[in-house]
Amino acid sequence: MTMLPASRVAGRTWTVRLTGHADHTVSVTCSTGACRMPPRSKDTVAMRRFAAEHIRAHARLATVRPNAACACRAADCSYHEDSRASCTGTPLLVLIHNPAVGQVWTLAEICQACARLIHHITVLGRAQGAAPAPRTQPAAETAPARVAVAGGFSSPEAAPEAVPRRRPHRGGPRRAR
After folding, report:
1. Locations of Low complexity compositional bias (predicted)?
2. Which of 65, 174, 163, 54 lies closest to 105 in space, CA to CA?
3. What is the pLDDT of residues 18-65, one digit of tens each?
4. Domain extents for the chain?
5. DSSP states of 44-84 as a string?
6. Sign (positive/negative) of CA torsion 77, 79, 83, 88?
7. What does the alpha-carbon distance between residue 55 and residue 68 come to, in Å, rounded to a whole number?
8. Is the pLDDT of residue 88 over 90?
9. Is the backbone of residue 168 left (phi > 0), alpha (psi -120 to 50) or beta?
10. For the whole model, what pTM was predicted?
């Protein structure tokens, strides 16, 4: 375990996990022992909704501590395994959840440097009295905002003209206009 300076306290993490079982039921577990979880159920959608709401409840009750050390560093930077960071910046409260997998929700106090490297992250809070995150690029080099384009095209030049479309006639009697 890494020793922290006296001014720092260990960053907290909460993990809510949805686990499937051989009998086609699912259960929800929380890393906080005091939390009461519902019994196993075959209603996966309801259990997933419960897990998401449970982690949101932890987030509502948690206050980011300005002297919190990075929980990611304490976990050997396992939240961003592909790269290393020197933990710097304001402590943030973040939610890590990959919707493609959808079975684990992690709420953690981590630093800004690690937060930039983690995929599927939502920043939920910042330490009280903390300054906004410094910009990594000067404003002159910032790319212009993308224009929303209909049809899913990536550039306005490639977008077709917007033409109102009518539904094709599908048989049956036609209505008089």
Report:
1. 138-150
2. 54
3. 999 999 999 999 999 899 999 999 999 999 999 999 999 999 998 888
4. 13-126
5. HHHHHHHHHHHHHHHHHH----TTBPPHHHHTTTGGGTT--
6. negative
7. 20
8. no
9. beta
10. 0.64
